[in-house]
């Protein structure tokens, strides 16, 4: 009986040493430790992969930047060349415009002088005729022709006479040099012209000096 009792106690001890799953005591604990170790190992590997990927992306970005660098330098050189060309063209344009303006002034004066030279020739001939002839009527006709020719030469160059006598006084066209009592009907009007005024195009070349009624 004592032997049977000892045997039963040994069997119970062995059964108690098994876990709920029927495995020996400590097996479940070992498996749990292995699982925890596996998860830790997996997390460590994930962090290592992320670090490798980050380093790879950085290297790719640097490589792309190095590839773009020559293109950027070429673009800078192209824009510098365009700027220098534009600056040179503008300088040439400025010089050409200045030269054309100077030529225009000289040519304009030359044209006017060429137009007046025939009038000068007519005046010279009139002076010679006056020394040789006493025909007043012929001399008067000749002088009138010279005056008409001179007026036409001015008109062709855009110079026209300012109409003043009998018109209302206009400070933009006339310069009053005197006032004269001329009655109520002539008050504020030009009653005499002391010096003829002229327009060059639509601008006053010389103001007409006039006497104004009051």
How is this structure best described in words?
With 214 residues, the chain is of the alpha+beta class. The protein has 3 helices and 6 strands; from the N terminus they run H-H-H-E-E-E-E-E-E. The protein has helices spanning 2-16, 27-132, 136-156, and strands spanning 159-161, 174-180, 190-195, 198-200, 203-206, 208-213. It has a 3-stranded antiparallel sheet with strand order 1-4-5. A hairpin with a 2-residue loop joins strand 4 (198-200) and strand 5 (203-206). Helix 2 (27-132) runs antiparallel to helix 3. The protein is elongated and about 125 Å long. The protein starts with a helix and ends with a strand. Mean pLDDT is 78; it is low at 17-30 and 37-42.
Chain-wise SSE layout:
Blueprint: H1 2-16, H2 27-132, H3 136-156, E1 159-161, E2 174-180, E3 190-195, E4 198-200, E5 203-206, E6 208-213
Parallel strand pairs: 2-6
Antiparallel strand pairs: 1-4, 3-6, 4-5
Helix pairs in contact: 2-3
Structural class, by secondary structure, is alpha+beta
**Largest sheet, spatial ordering of strands:** 1-4-5
Number of beta-strand segments:
6
- Radius of gyration, whole Å: 58 Å
Beta strand % = 5-15%
- Specify the overall morphology: elongated
Gap between N and C termini: 168 Å
Count of runs of 4 or more consecutive helical residues? 3
């Amino acid at each position: 009986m004592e032997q049977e009792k000892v045997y039963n106690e040994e069997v119970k001890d062995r059964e108690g040493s098994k876990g709920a799953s029927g495995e020996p005591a400590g097996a479940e604990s070992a498996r749990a430790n292995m699982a925890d170790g596996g998860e830790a190992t997996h997390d460590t590997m994930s962090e290592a992969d992320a670090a490798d990927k980050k380093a790879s992306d950085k290297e790719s970005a640097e490589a792309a930047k190095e590839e773009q660098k020559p293109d950027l330098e070429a673009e800078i050189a192209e824009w510098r060349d365009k700027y220098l060309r534009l600056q040179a063209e503008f300088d040439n344009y400025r010089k050409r415009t200045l030269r054309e303006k100077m030529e225009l002034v000289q040519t304009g004066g030359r044209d006017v002088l060429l137009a007046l030279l025939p009038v000068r020739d007519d005046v010279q001939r009139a002076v010679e005729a006056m020394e040789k002839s006493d025909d007043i009527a012929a001399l008067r006709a000749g002088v009138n022709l010279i005056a008409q020719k001179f007026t036409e030469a001015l008109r062709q160059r855009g110079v026209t006479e300012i109409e003043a006598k009998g018109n209302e006084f206009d400070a933009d066209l006339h310069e009053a040099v005197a006032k004269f009592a001329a009655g109520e009907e002539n008050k504020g009007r030009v009653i005499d012209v002391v010096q003829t005024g002229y327009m060059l195009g639509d601008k006053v070349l010389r103001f007409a000096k006039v006497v104004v009624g009051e």
